[in-house]
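Lay summary. Proteins are chains of building blocks that fold into shapes, and those shapes determine what they do. In this project we predict the shape from the chain. Here is one chain we studied, written as its sequence of building blocks.
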Amino acid sequence: MNEKSAEAKSAEEIISKCINGYKFSLEEAKELLNFDLSTLGLIADQIRNKFCGNTVTFVCDTTINYTNICASKCKFCAFYRSKSAGDAYVLTIDEILQKTEKAENLGATQVLLQGGLNNDIPLSYYETIIKAVRDKFPGVQRHFFSAAEIYFIAENNNMAVEDVMERFRDDGLQSFGGGGAEILVDDVRKKISPYKISAGQWREVITKAHKTGIKTSATMVYGFGESKEDRLRHLLFLRDIQEETDGFTAFIPWSFQPQNTALNVSDLLSQGKFLAGGCDYLEIIALSRIIFNKFLRNIQASWLTEGEKLAQIALFYGANDFSGTIIEENVVQDAGIKFSGKTREEMVNLIKQTGRIPAQRNTFYNVMKIYL
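And here is the predicted shape, written in a compact code that computers can read:
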């Protein structure tokens, strides 16, 4: 067998492993990077079709950012403010309820509530919000907080992480977002968010949440100058958690938005590092589908950060979900993204343009309505 024949056989063996749900090690996953993007996309799309068919889901939702005061001061974040800043804020309970009512009136079935790590907010504030939304809007999913917030709240109140989550669950918390993950490699985290929880602490919160009966999403923010191996480490880290707990509802990657942040773009470029582009996004979508495979069904395409057209293309690289209508959002807006929420009809149209079948879902990816 000549060298080219051996390479072709090796490639065929790797592709067969992908299709058949093989559990890749890091060294084996690195071999996937030898494939061109189109090939990765074809493999991932075949796996997507196997598990999800031609249905593409979306949720009617909103994001409420309850405070922009944050002790973490991540270098990649344009949203956080110090307590003394003129535009620093903490929403009142009434303001949060008003925003929730507006969202429900516009058809939202999910509210993502997230904010900064604010030392001055008491535990009672969080509990009152959960209970008030539960009582006044029982039809709206309470998708509140993140692993970083939960860990901070526990530490700020001298409580164990599991005790906070059990209290919040009993108050009515149903799930929370996967935010605060960024890249789950501590060497990267120390450079971009040295005051935020470590990868191990993030895992601690997430696994304890899942064991408490609280589902979460899993996320990745990339484009900080990390290596492709770092990205693979992140995906394998998440896959191993999912294999252990089966508590992730979906994987949601998006690119670092550099405007108005302390992470200087020119510094990255001077180090020979490049901002992530569309090919990076499609590669991550495809790799996540291949690596997660049977372990995690739902891969979300983000029209908010990547744009409608690239998000549509991602549906052919392994994604099966088109995010949400996102009636309101502030964090990404502060990083320079021009934003306006979408109607249900706009979401349906964008999905139909790809030849796929749109379906409205809830937070747990249960289909509520199919649009034929």
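What the prediction tells us: Residues 331-336 have pLDDT under 50 and may be disordered.
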